[in-house]
Structure prediction request, 282 residues.
Amino acid sequence: MKPFITTLAIVVSLLFAVPAPAVEAGVVKVGVEGTAAKKAAILELLFRKAKKALVTAAQDRNFSQYFSARPRLAEKSRIKERIDRISLSVQSRFHVEEMCLINVEGAEISRIVGKQIANDLDPDETDAIFFKPGFEQKPRKVYVSPAYMSGDANMWVVAFTTPVLVADEKRAILHYEHPLTVYQNALNKGMSGDERFIVAVNADGWIVSDSRKPISIEKSGGSEAPQAYFEKFEFFGMNADRIKSIVDGAGVLSAGGETYTADYKTVEHWTLFVFERQNSVL
Prediction:
């Protein structure tokens, strides 16, 4: 069995203007806590599977062979073709929009975008959000980036990056991008309407997922600024830190004439907030 086929088999086995509110003392419902915990567990599982799949793929000896010696040009070209095939297969199975191998100088060795092998390889990816932290990872560890607009996929993505080692030396990084919709769909499944809903907020306070409405991730109008796609999080005038302080105090929220229970969980760069009207039925 050829090495890249072995790796793919393993990878597949491992695997998206109101009045200021009043605050009243109360006890958070088990149902709200349970929903937050369940959704956090789903998100953590997606991240964990993505990490394992990438690390497993990075152990394929074709990657190390490409950097370990100075083969003849023809042989190096054949190795590169095998790397492209590995990336194509990983992409087709794991909702990957873009996957690339980048050397220590920042030059792309291989890139797959939209199920196609790219020929316009970027000579300098050192400014990419994932480049420096990717190389800083320990062997078999993965950096998970904040959501960003991908210049190759033209959509908002989450990047996973792990180093490729040759004789214990980091010679490259293997990287792929998942569209934000993978995680939006997983979080929003089974949630609808305003009675009980979940909102995912990134570290900068932008709402990247909201079960009450779709959030488009496709590049539009040439803008890559988050404010062109996302809204800042607030709940009846309260920001994320205020909500957390109330929830941590086992409180309920009285806002806009309604009373809500709430809970939150943090996973990677995101905080998941679950809200439910007190009189709603689980």
